[in-house]
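Batch job 17 of 40 flagged for manual review because the log was empty.
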Amino acid sequence: MHRTSDKPTKSRVKALLMGSVFALALGGIVAGETAFIFDNTAQAQNLSQPQTQAVFSFADMVQRVQPAVVSIRVKTDETVGQGDSDNEGLPPGLTPDSPFYDFFKRFGMPGMPGGRDRGPQHRYGLAQGSGFFISADGYVVTNNHVVENATDVKVVTDDGTEHAAKVIGTDPKTDLALIKVTDGKDFPHVTFAANESRVGDWVVAVGNPFGLGGSVTAGIISARGRDIGAGPYDDFLQIDAPINKGNSGGPAFNAGGEVIGVNTAIYSPSGGSVGIGFAIPARTAQQVVASLMEHGKVVRGWLGVQIQPVTEEIANSLGLDKAHGALVTEPQDNSPASKAGIEAGDTILSINGLEVEDAKDLARKIAAFPPKTVVDVTLWRDGKEVTVKVDLGELPNEQVASAQKSDGSEEHTSLGDYGLTLAPADAVGAGDSGAVITDVDPAGKASERGLRQGDIILQAGGQTVEGPRDVSKAISGAEKAGKTAILLRVKSGDSVRFLALPLGK
């Protein structure tokens, strides 16, 4: 009885389904759309047929350029002398207040190198990275940090052949290095891209992640002009193609197989890729490599100024229509800038007609010129543009400046509305002129703008400051003129900068 009652139900369901399918098919025909296909055999045949539309792939490009990408193996030797490591040769956890500290410091501990009398020690290490050939005769580009302190360099090509190499030159400021294979010839090589890459362009990273050998990852350029605090000429491409430890020095290719960057750094809390990598643009790499190949070092143009960014407040106080350019805080003695008449308070707007976006951009533009190049420097001075010719010099070795501050306490003058207490610089031994800050209210305007005890105000509103009275007078004059801020030139230790102090109570 149950079977008999089931049959009509199944028939009705089948009829209902068939009717629904027929109605849908009919509706598709009436609407002018493609009819449904019910033949399972035909459907399987269609799925098994070759694709008529080409699938995008990097395979051909990778096959063409991968032989030019190499793995780099480096042996390093860092000589460690007496005093280089206070805790070397000491038991773990031993502190200077322990009664055994001096004993172990002098004699070391069993099984470890001795203490003070052990002489220079050698620490040997191995490093791995990536690189790529840029010429048939064996020149290879990589990162400076890959070959830094190298005593032995080996280049391993895509087919597994190992070649000896030597370091031609390095540039720590951009983290680039040029090495050369000393045996062999007719190496496959790649070229740098002639055109600037754009955000959204495809990028393919090839290298030696984690020492695995040639690996390929792909993504896009996420951003340009990234400053990651690596050096004075930061101008990185940000890419999301995964790069990891060991990819350093490897190339980033565009879809045409041209090198658009040199993989250098990643942002990662774990050491592995999280999709944020940084590459040195081809434009920068070409300039550095050419200099390393010719001179064995990078020779950069030198202007000789201390500079700082132009903020909105500083731009307003200077009368600029927008915040751009680089503000000169002080020209260096006997520098090309001082010889050309560039002064503190000038804002550098352009070099040879090329607009200077900010202080970093000025440094990059000047460094791109070879020494002894004469350039036109357009300045903003006293509310108008002035152009001077500068004969660039060669960037000298960096000098480390030490900061010294004074906290004298004679002839103090209070500027209560701004949270400042000042004294004559000469009266407290802080210099021949200026007003030294002897006290700063942490809740005041001056503190908010970065003024600190010991800073010396050299100029206020473009006028030289001989003492606190000049600062007070300049502030009063600016307030009466209806200005919203006054520009101060301030010396902090051995560095000089400008800042805009808001006016009014």
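Reviewer: the log was empty due to a logging misconfiguration, but the result itself is present. The domain at 301-394 is CATH 2.30.42.10 (Pdz3 Domain). Unflagging and moving on to job 18.
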